[in-house]
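Anyone up for a design puzzle?
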């Protein structure tokens, strides 16, 4: 019986390790990426006029599905996640990870709108709207899922790089329904976190898009390195998984890419994501400071300011995504 159980476990591990999906791909030198648009999105921004398809009922924010003038399908989200998700998704893509290509549309009109529920507060009787996030429809791979515990990803520098992005952007809402396997614009299968709307605040109080709070944590955000592993002050969902096993050598690999990201690029991406001039200056400066702190640890193998902090238990370590739920857009 024990031998049979061992054989089954070995078979499960073998199947997991045979996944055809990848987590990361080289998106080219980050210093040359234009963050005013979604990196490596060959389709470009949405083009008006927009034609109503239907309203999406799930998720936290009001959403509708539309088709644009080129026939592309877009998931249109309204509310507090619009700006942080548009910007954070571009950083994720610039780093080489998949997130739905997203654009901020300050105003527009959707033709032939009918029977709205939650979205009624965001779209008037004539179809006019303001401050929306347009995310290109994802091509999901049916029956495929993944988690931060995937056997084929454990111990990889690419997984550590994604964890560092989660912490850099202060994405506190890491949960199973936001994990999916998708087909990228190039047709290859990629592991993806599909929702980055709860970012750029402080995970401890579940805030987002609040630069004063985000900046206030920045000086002690990197706690340093110990025993070859990086310590970062992060207390969002799945913090026990996200903060675990990020090696200094993984950080060095991550910074060979992200060190080229300039404050001017960050401002460019923030402005095109709906940020005010004040927000753009504040977030760009704070993100640059966090990257500088990571670079200092990568170069020295230590450093940072070690602080005492209380880590709450926010979730279990199980990140299995076989929930039957489709990831929200």
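Challenge accepted. My sequence:
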């Amino acid at each position: 019986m024990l031998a049979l159980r061992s054989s089954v476990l070995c078979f499960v591990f073998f199947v997991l390790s045979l996944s055809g999906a990848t987590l990361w791909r080289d998106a080219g030198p980050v210093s040359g990426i234009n963050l005013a648009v979604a990196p490596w999105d060959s389709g470009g921004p949405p083009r008006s006029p927009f034609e109503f398809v239907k309203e999406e009922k799930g998720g936290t924010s009001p959403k509708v599905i539309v088709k644009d003038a080129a026939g592309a399908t877009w998931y249109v989200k309204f509310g507090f996640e619009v700006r942080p998700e548009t910007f954070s998704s571009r950083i994720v893509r610039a780093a080489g990870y998949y997130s739905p290509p997203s654009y901020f549309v300050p105003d527009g009109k959707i033709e032939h709108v009918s029977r709205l529920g939650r979205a009624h507060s965001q779209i008037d009787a004539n179809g006019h709207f303001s401050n929306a996030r347009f995310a290109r429809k994802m091509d999901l791979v049916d029956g495929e899922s993944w988690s931060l515990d995937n056997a084929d990803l454990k111990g990889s520098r690419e997984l550590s790089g994604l964890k560092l992005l989660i912490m850099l952007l202060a994405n506190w809402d890491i949960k199973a329904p936001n994990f999916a396997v998708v087909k990228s614009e190039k047709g290859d299968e990629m592991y993806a976190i599909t929702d980055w709307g709860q970012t750029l605040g402080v995970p401890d109080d579940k805030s987002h898009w609040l630069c004063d709070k985000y900046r206030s944590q920045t000086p002690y955000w990197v706690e340093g390195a110990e025993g070859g592993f990086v310590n970062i002050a992060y207390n969002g969902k799945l913090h026990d998984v996200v903060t675990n096993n990020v090696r200094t050598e993984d950080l060095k690999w991550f910074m060979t890419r992200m060190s080229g990201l300039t404050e001017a690029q960050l401002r460019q991406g923030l402005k095109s994501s709906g940020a005010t001039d004040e927000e753009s200056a504040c977030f760009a400066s704070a993100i640059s400071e966090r990257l500088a702190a990571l670079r200092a640890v990568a170069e020295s193998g230590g450093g940072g300011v070690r602080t005492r902090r209380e880590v709450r238990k926010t979730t279990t370590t199980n990140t299995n995504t076989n929930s039957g739920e489709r990831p929200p857009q």
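A detail worth pointing out: The two ends are 45 Å apart (CA to CA).
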